[in-house]
Structures are given as structure tokens and as C-alpha cells.
Protein: Ppx/GppA family phosphatase
Organism: Gracilibacillus caseinilyticus
Amino acid sequence: MKKQYYAIIDIGSNTMRLVIYLREKGGKLKEVENVKAVARLRTFLNDDNTLTQSGIDRLVSTLQSFQDVLATYQLQEVVCLATATIRQADNKEEIVLQAEANTGITIRILTEKEEAYYGYLAVVNSTSVTTGITVDIGGGSTEVTYFKDRELIEAHSFSFGALTLKEFFSKPIPSEAELKELRHYLSEQFSTLPWLCNKEVPLIAIGGSARNLVQIDQNLKEYPLAGQHQYKMYDTDIKQVSNYLTTLKPDKLSKVEGLSKDRADIIIPAIEVFHSLYQIIQADCFILSRKGLRDGVFFEQLSKEIGSVLFPNVLEDSIQELITDYSLDTKQIVHVQYLTRKLFQYLKENSLIHLDKQDWKLLKRASYLCNLGEYIDAEASAQHTFYLLANRTIDGLMHKDRLRIALIASYKNKTIFKQFIRPYKTWFLKEERKKLRHLGAILKFSYCLDATRRQVVRDITFDHQKDTLVIELHCNGDAAPEEYQSEKQKKHLEKAIKKEVILRFITS
């Protein structure tokens, strides 16, 4: 099948970006190229609200440089969007005409409502958050939305952005008085929207400034997991980063790990926006979404095919994407899930292990991905499974849940489990670490019952007495390989239930 590529150009007030997407088998779009140019068009906006000819020339020359990249792909579609600076310019028609005449690229200027909407659409289709407030701070505007049960309720665009807010400061590192003035201004602005106040929901941030805030926080904490999408912070974390940056000398600011040089002069006002908004809404956490405006536009395009702007299940789609990418055997997955469910239910109902609905949810998700690492190397499958799941973004999963699933799906034995969890030991209480180990043992045992992927073990029944659990495996053929593997693995199940496990393979 011929590869389908799509391109989007995002003309922001601070940066311009070209992103190329490849459409995958499942229909989703995967980013394959990301080219950024720091155009700072906002600085070319005159007092009379017109973009200078120098600004238009900067825009055109950047688009021309993007064309060299576009020419290397056979593209299905090219979309070019402009936001606050072009939208607010009184000579926007002239800007669009010159750009098209010199490049052949047609610019679509987004309204304030459209810009906010696409940000919301990206968040609800790439995270597990069902109710929250989004914020996207650009160079010249800041968009906020409120959504409930994944439906957009309110949206607003403020006419200030990171570039305009830095004018509150006379130097890159602000004085305490300047910070106080900015905080007062932001509080007044956000308070004009009653629907923002005291919502006590997650605050989800998108855009470059939010990514930089997260990168700085991760570096300060020496965060052991890869990825930023769905990374969680709290009020004290945002304040700590702010305090760290505002105590630096100006020449040190641009050298901060995780901070892009082109954002060094605007990161502090951007962080103040996040912190002020966090306090106004009394947020329960701050979450980064790496999916934003550009992704929202393509989500709308895809919605024409599925008949809804909302993907029915973000996480299920992401898991299916992994199954497709790593060529996992769906027939085996379904069968092992059936066996795992029967074993889980029996252990739960007979109180052999304390288990609940949430445990089954984790176990079921992990069961889809148990053999992921075999794609790279069968001998070190557990190690590769853990690394891939722990360090790959999975839409719909927060970082801690992603780690839980990685630990369960990669379970081989207690020693390797301890090796995997060591860098994250403080993330879980002792009881939860033990629970994750037990869930891993259940899943690994179930997979042993289909070691040859023939579904030869058709059903499973149980009988337990004081010190033993008899598991009868009903087979429709020779199950010698399954018997060998499960006999090897049953000791981990025995430790979990504190009983001897006797396996009886019965051929019908």
C-alpha cells in the first residue's frame, strides 16, 4: 500500500512549525518530521496593528524554506494555519496574498474560537481526562477551554501571550515587584470568567512553553521515565520551577537543562500564567498534553471518516496501535485473556489473593502487550517489553499507570521484577508493589498455558483445599510444551497464594 503523508504548517506568534504525518494502518497519524523556525512575527507588529513588510518577508522566507522539506514527500494534503499575530493584524489580507503569490501556499487564519476548539479536541482525543480545563499560551494569545464528560462547555481567547507578557519585565529575570504586578494582572484577567473559578479539575496545558516547564521539572527531579505527554505536576512543582528560574543570573537562564534558548526570555511569564490559572481553578493537578492545535485539526479531518469528533476510546485505540505496530497475535491475546479472567476470578472469589475491579483493569490492559518484547528479541523479551511500555507514550495512560502495566506485562520472576521497579520504588507503597508482582505472576502463568499459540488448553477449572490448589487444564490435543512451561512458572503463583499448585492436563 502506498504511504500516505500529510503536512501542516503552524504560523504562531513566536515560532513557525512544519510537521509531516504518516497515516498508519489503523488510520491514526504518526509524526515523522518536525521542523521549527523562530520567526517571532509578534515583534514585527506595529503600533497601528499592521505587520511590517520585514515581518511579511520573514514569514515568506520561512514558508519557502519549508517548501524544500515538503518537496521530499508525496503529500496527500498540506494545511497552513495562522493564529494570533496574523489574526490581529489589520493588513491580514495583504499578508495572505503575498504569502500565496510567493509560495503558492494558502494560509487559513483561525478564529479565536477555532484555535481554542482544536486545542480541546487534541486533549480529549489523546488523554484519559474526561473533565478539565485546557490552556494554550502562544506568543500573542492564550486560549482556555472547559470540557465536561469530554464535551466542550466553554472557550475563551485572551489577547495576551508569552511575548506580550514579558513586557511586564524590564530584564529577563524580573524583580519581585514586577512579578507581583504580573500575577495581579493575570488574576484579574482570569477572574473575568466565572466558569474558571474553583472548578477543582485537572489543568491540561499544551504548547511549547508547557513542554519546556515539564522538561525543566523532569531534569530537576532526574525523572527516570521517558516522555512528556500526560506528565503530571502539582502546584508546588510549578512554584519550585518558577523559584529556581527567578533566582538565576540572566546569563545562566538560557543554559537551563530542558529550556529552549528561544524561550529563555518568555518562560517565566508563561509559567506565571500556568500557576495563576492553577490557583484560580483550584486545580487538582497540572497535566501536559504534547498533542495540541495541529493534532486537533487532523483529529477533525479523521472524524469525517468515523462520524464523530471524539474517538470512542483513546486508550483502546492506543493499545490497538501497539498490537498493529509490533505484529502481536490477536487470536492468542483473546484466548489468554479468557484464561487469565477465569484464574483471576477464582483467586478473587475464593480470597486466595485480595483482588478488585481495578486490578482486573490493569491485568486486562497488560495482557494485550505481554509478548511485545519478542518483536525485538525473544531471549530478552521481558526486558524489551518493560522498556518499550515504560518509555513509549500511550495515549490515555498517565505515566504511573503506564509503569504499572509495564511491570505486569514484563513479569518473569521476582528478581527481574525488583530490577525493573528499583528506580521507581518510592512511587509505590510496599503493598502495591506486592500486588503488581502477583498480577504479573497470574499473567505470566496464563501465557504459559498458550506457549505454542495453538490454544490447545481450551478451558480451566479449579479445586482447592487447605494447602493445595488443583488446576485442571482441559485440552484438545497434546499440551506437552504448555505443561512444561506452566510447571516451571507455577512457583510464582504458589508464592502469591501461599499454597501448593497441582496442574492436571486433561485431554478430551
In short: The mean pLDDT is 95. DSSP finds 19 helices and 14 strands in the chain. The longest strand covers residues 29-37. The two ends are 44 Å apart (CA to CA).
